[in-house]
Amino acid sequence: MRAVLFTGRGEVRVASVAEPLISDPGDAVVRVRRAAVCGTDLHTVAHAEHVPLGTVLGHEFVGEIAEVGPAVQGHALGDLVVGADFTACGTCWWCRRGDHWECPRRRFFGTGASFGPALAGAQAELVRVPFADTVLRPVPAGVGLDAAVFLGDTLATGYAAVRRAELQPGDTVVVVGGGPVGQLASLVAQACGAGIVVVVEPVADRRGLAVSEGAVGTDPDRAREVVEHLTEGRGADAVIDAIGGPPGLDTAFALVRRRGVIVSVGVHADPAWPMPVGRAFADELTLRFAIGDLMRDGEALLALVRSGAVDPTVVASETVPLDGAPDAYRRMAERRTLKSLIAF
Ligand SMILES: [Zn+2]
Ligand SMILES: [Zn+2]
Predict the structure, then answer these.
(1) Distance between CA atoms of residues 237 and 197, nearest Å
(2) Distance set, CA 24 to CA 1, 29, 76, 108 (Å)
């Protein structure tokens, strides 16, 4: 089969590799119909720690069940399914609580050994999915392929951010970063009762998309002024950091009101950051981190999409065939596109 492979720092190629086989009774093999390219893929290719050459990339996918192991009960051949971006056993103490990310059997598709033992990715004609009854979710009629492919990561992450912010109706929410996750966090916040959502983003096109999708857009330099104007000087009730690292957290602290909530869903590579604890204490701030989980939140995500409350396809810049994936990676890395889908 053909797949997108990591072939060297900063380099991806489409090439032929062996087809995946059922290796555990709980496995399924999925024939991929849509895969998406994610910022995590760009990071994996650019930094390449723990990623062997020849790794099949990608972790966002929707497709049809092509083969099931003898223990799989919930899926039949031909069923349309969407995959979570990581695997979990579904039966351990953590999984029973819905905390799949903490599962000791976690593996993350297409990222080498970065988040658990390596597991081949989903930018491929076929992908093997361990614990298929837990990791795969049926895609109901009325949810298209181009929307379903967002459920496994980008929309799940935006949703996790909004849920952890525990919004009250009418809240003013700031989203730091207008990348795909930030854009979808804005849409979910609007669907979940936010009064005003402000997206802080330096790139004009991304700001423009946020505004056309119902948010207030601002450049980072003017963010404090805009938020103060909208909140009578108080600051935002909740801030979602969708860029990560010290800049995301610093911006969030600068914009949150007293007793407000910050939820960070951006990726953090730095081991430490000087938290403004004096202010956090005096203003009784809450800082949380969240990771998306289709296995936990799938019903809510499907309801948001199926009802029309959220249309995740607004962040898809282009759909390319498999052979176009390397160029699509390049355009995304150069920020000429927001998000690329691969059609099979
Ligand atoms: Zn992703
Ligand atoms: Zn588990």
Answers:
(1) 10
(2) 21, 11, 17, 17
- Residue 260 C-alpha to ligand 2 middle, in angstroms? 33
In angstroms, rounded to a whole number, what is the distance separating the alpha carbons of residues 133 and 86?
13
Q: How far is the CA of 265 from the centre of ligand 1 (A)?
A: 12
- Tell me, in angstroms, the distance from the centre of ligand 1 to residue 153's CA: 5
In this structure, which CATH number among 3.40.50.2300, 3.60.15.10, 3.90.180.10, 3.40.50.920 belongs to the domain 2-153+293-343?
A: 3.90.180.10
pLDDT in tens, 35-58: 999 999 999 999 877 799 999 999
Residues linked to residue 107 through DSSP beta bridges, in sequence order? 87
Write down the domain spans for the chain: 2-153+293-343, 158-289
| Top-tier CATH class for 158-289 | alpha beta
* Rounded distance from Cα 253 to ligand 1 centre (Å): 26
pLDDT 10s digits, 79-132: 999 999 999 999 999 999 999 999 999 999 999 998 999 999 999 999 999 999
78 Cα–ligand 1 center, Å: 25
Distance 342 CA to ligand 1 centre (A): 13
Ligand 1 centroid from CA 146, angstroms:
15
Q: How remote is the CA of residue 157 from the centroid of ligand 1, in Å?
A: 9
Here the tokens at position 11 are 């380099």
